[in-house]
């Protein structure tokens, strides 16, 4: 159930980010509302799967450069995950496109902030914090 909640939060963050950023294109403008919602849900699912499978491996491989940059390289990893999701969604004829790497970087920052805020308000991220507290003790 928590995974579904994260997909919904990611979908909302993607949608709001696409409204804010002119360099991010999500879905077809002429599509019906139902088609737009299904497109956003499918892209959010793709992004969640990529973040579950690819991101931990990439984070581990880039740990030295992440430490060197004091964690700022995680922004690049977020951007790469968005660009990979864009490529994979294109394989399924879903529209997620960025005009440049920098638009994808800015989109990653905004999506991360929005997701964090919504998860904090709804309590979705609280389970994760409780696990980290219990693991640390």
Sequence-ordered SSE layout with sheet pairings:
Layout: H1 2-20, E1 24-26, H2 33-61, H3 63-68, H4 73-91, E2 96-98, H5 101-122, H6 126-136
Antiparallel strand pairs: 1-2
Describe this structure in words.
The protein is mainly alpha-helical. Helices cover about 75% and strands about 5% of the residues. It contains 6 helices and 2 strands; from the N terminus they run αβαααβαα. It has helices at about 1-20, 35-60, 65-70, 75-90, 100-120, 125-135, and strands at about 25, 95-100. A two-stranded antiparallel ribbon has the order 1-2. The two termini are about 25 Å apart. The model has no long low-confidence stretch (mean pLDDT about 90).
Radius of gyration: 15 Å
Label the overall shape.
Answer: globular
- Bin the helical content: over 70%
- Percent strand equals under 5%
Order of helices and strands: HEHHHEHH
> What is the number of strand segments?
2
Sum up the structure in keywords:
2 strands; single chain; 6 helices; mainly alpha; globular; 137 residues
Short structural summary:
The chain has helices spanning 2-20, 33-61, 63-68, 73-91, 101-122, 126-136, and strands at residues 24-26, 96-98. The chain is mostly helical and 137 residues long.
């Amino acid at each position: 159930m928590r995974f579904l909640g994260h997909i919904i939060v990611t979908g909302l963050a993607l949608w709001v980010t696409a409204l804010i950023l002119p360099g991010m294109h999500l879905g077809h403008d002429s599509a019906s509302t139902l088609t737009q919602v299904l497109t956003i849900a499918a892209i959010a699912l793709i992004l969640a799967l990529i973040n579950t499978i690819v991101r931990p491996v990439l984070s581990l491989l880039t740990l030295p450069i992440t430490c060197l940059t004091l964690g700022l390289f995680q922004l690049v990893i977020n951007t790469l995950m968005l660009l990979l999701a864009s490529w994979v969604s294109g394989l399924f004829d879903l529209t997620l496109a960025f005009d440049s790497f920098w638009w994808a970087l800015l989109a990653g920052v905004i999506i991360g902030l929005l997701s964090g805020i919504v998860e904090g308000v709804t309590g979705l991220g609280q389970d994760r914090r409780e696990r980290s507290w219990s693991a640390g003790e």
